[in-house]
Amino acid sequence: MNGKILVLALCCAWRPSAAAETAQERGKRVVYEALQALGGDNFLKMEDRVESGRAYSFHENRLSGLSVAKIYTRYLVAPAIPAPGGIYLRERDGLGKDEFQTFLYREDGAWEITFRGAQPLPDERLATWKDSTRRNVLYILHNRLKEPGLAFYSQGADRWENKPVEIVEITDAENATVTVFFEVSSKLPVRQVYRRRNVEYKDFDTEVTLFGNYRDIGGVKWPYQIRRDRNGSKVFEMFSESVEVDKNLKDDLFALPANIKVLPKKGK
Prior knowledge:
Blueprint: H1 3-14, H2 23-38, H3 41-44, E1 48-59, E2 62-75, E3 89-95, E4 101-106, E5 109-114, E6 117-120, H4 123-134, H5 137-144, E7 151-160, E8 163-171, E9 177-183, E10 189-198, E11 203-217, E12 220-230, E13 233-245
Antiparallel strand pairs: 1-2, 1-13, 2-3, 3-4, 4-5, 5-6, 7-8, 8-9, 9-10, 10-11, 11-12, 12-13
């Protein structure tokens, strides 16, 4: 037998066909292919990130706010086996050219910082940030893949915005679920959907995040355009002009300034 034909025959015999994959196997394969497309080890080793650009907020699909924004993110060192529900990330959102208004999010609290002082944000705001972070597919791929109870279930192939996608449902040990659309050609996540209980109205909100315009930054791919919709209406969109990774961000950037006045907790 011709050598090339023999090698091809052996490869075909070893490699399982897509039809032979279970939903769990296919889902896991798609997720790990996305991890490699994002940069593999470079993505996993990313310690911090700075995104600079313009952020837009919307109410009932109408523009309600526009600001120069700088988002600082630092990943914390997680244990070898991350605890279900744990948050291993801190975030600082600076608004305006001089960052005159800053929102600080940590695992132990959240604050709005202005010239008046630091005002703790409502518990519901912190809980929403934690839930959004834990169900963000980019955070899942960076921090949560070793978490006990995390499961992947393929929902099959489909088309979204006229592009072939693989759809995977990711569920954790607490039954929090997010459905992610991965573009077939790039392997990258382009859309995610999940439902969150609305405490005020006692029903559910459908949260959608779109990721676009991925660029390579030092061996890591990151979306320069991120949009969030709620119940079919656009609520937030950011267009980054620059993204930098591994800038050696220090602890004090994510801490309240020394001797700052702490104001009463903000209402809803």
